[in-house]
Write a structure and sequence with these properties.
Number of helices: 14
CATH topology of the largest domain: Rossmann fold
Oligomer: single chain
Signal peptide: 1-26
Pfam family, one: O-FucT
Bound molecules: guanosine-5'-triphosphate, 2-acetamido-2-deoxy-beta-D-glucopyranose
InterPro entries: GDP-Fuc_O-FucTrfase, OFUT2-like
Shape: globular
Number of strands: 11
CATH class of the largest domain: Alpha Beta
Strand order of the largest sheet: 3-2-1-7-4-6-5
GO cellular component, one term: endoplasmic reticulum
Order of helices and strands: HEHEHEHEHEEHEHHHEHHEHEHEH
Radius of gyration: 24 Å
Strand content: 15-25%
Distance between the termini: 79 Å
Structural class: alpha/beta
Main location: endoplasmic reticulum
Largest sheet: 7 strands, mixed
Amino acid sequence: MNFKQFSRFWINIALMLLLISSCSYSDSVCYKNDNKCTKENQFRYLLYDVNAPEGFNLRRDVYMRFAILAHQMQKSDNPALKFKMVLPPWSHLVHWSYSEYPEHIPWSLYFDLKSLQMFAPVIEMHEFFSRYQKKYSKVIIEKVYTLQHFEDMFETGNFEDRLKIEECQDTHKLNFFFYENITAKNVHCLSYHGPATKLTELFLNTSAGTILINHAEVALHEFFGNNLYWQARRSMRFNKELKTIADDFRRIFLKSNDETDNTILPESWKHEKPKRNAIGGSYIAVHLRRRDFVRSRPNETPNLDSVAQQITKILIKLNLNTVFIATDGPKDEFDTLSKMLVHYKLFKYTPSSVIKQKYKEGGVAIIDQIICSYARYFIGTHDSTFTFRIQEEREILGFPSDSTFNTLCKVVGQCHKPSIWTIVY
Ligand SMILES: Nc1nc2c(ncn2[C@@H]2O[C@H](COP(=O)(O)OP(=O)(O)OP(=O)(O)O)[C@@H](O)[C@H]2O)c(=O)[nH]1
Ligand SMILES: *[C@@H]1O[C@H](CO)[C@@H](O)[C@H](O)[C@H]1NC(C)=O
Ligand SMILES: *[C@@H]1O[C@H](CO)[C@@H](O)[C@H](O)[C@H]1NC(C)=O
């Protein structure tokens, strides 16, 4: 055996071992009245991933679209639609600083998993792994669909809902959530226009036990602001400890608490009743989105002078003297703003190193969002999804809409009309 033959021999052995260790799951998918059904294989697994540059708060919106899909499939009688949806761990988000290694942050660090599960059958990636680890050392996803827009959509003006396997527009290598032990068998590109719920058509057409949807953000909401939308949104309660940290800050610095603010929510969002009687703490909150917004949206993003003027106007109008600032801008901007508003009390949340280390930028952002949500009056940044999530939170808490849907203007009196998504009772 010469060297070439020798190495080919070992490559073959290695391939064989790989195949043995990774056989497909489709034959273990369980359909009704099938004696193959065991507790473990009665579900298929749906995984989804989002375009790398999308931020945390847009990803939360994509989650809602897929949670609604998973919710509807769970309610269906069709056994072929029995899925568990695997939550994509948070890694390498563009706005967050990160090291070379992916963080793989589980959803439970930021959200109350039990609450999510009351709406949709979701599991963490590590749970998905542990279900397979017993049998296999590597996960081989049976079908991957990378969503893409129809290239002809704007030329032909065809905006009908449709889906079709087509040639891939994007030829980047798939990254599988930055795991080295996940690969795929079948990869397709799916030109797609329509809501995420339309994907059931695809799932009914395949018996694959594991399906991954890439570029999930291409799939849209079926309805914006209907009852199902708000159920999904309400189920996204934050990790309780983050709420506690935010509550401590409110109590200590802003003299705000749920009793006096009239913002107590029932333990379970399923019992939430329509109301619009939240008062909020005696402070106004401002979400001041800077960094890339300053550069990429010069016509919308105000300078600090203008921000200070706009804040002053509202403080006078509401007869308040306390401001909470949530911002991704540098510390010296906050200091400058404080100097411009010396007659008022300005606050900003600064995490201790322990909290920063445990919850990272995502957790700090959520704490800022919570504190903004409980203010008497909120002013956000035009077109920021970070702001949208705060506005939704305030709708859920029952604030009057005119205390919520306000955004900073470029200069006083020159404003964009904010998009308003209220809960309609
Ligand atoms: N702590 C904190 N972080 C912020 C604030 N505003 C923005 N950030 C950070 O900047 C990131 C970018 O905002 P995201 O809303 O997640 O990004 P996006 O989904 O692209 O949304 P926008 O760019 O805001 O439309 C957030 O994930 C935060 O880490 C803020 O007020 N407080
Ligand atoms: C894949 O690797 C990750 C660590 O990178 C590990 O946590 C997980 O359990 C592994 N999965 C399987 C199926 O071995
Ligand atoms: C379903 O499968 C058939 C046969 O493989 C294929 O021709 C059709 O395009 C598929 N439909 C969808 C929605 O994937």
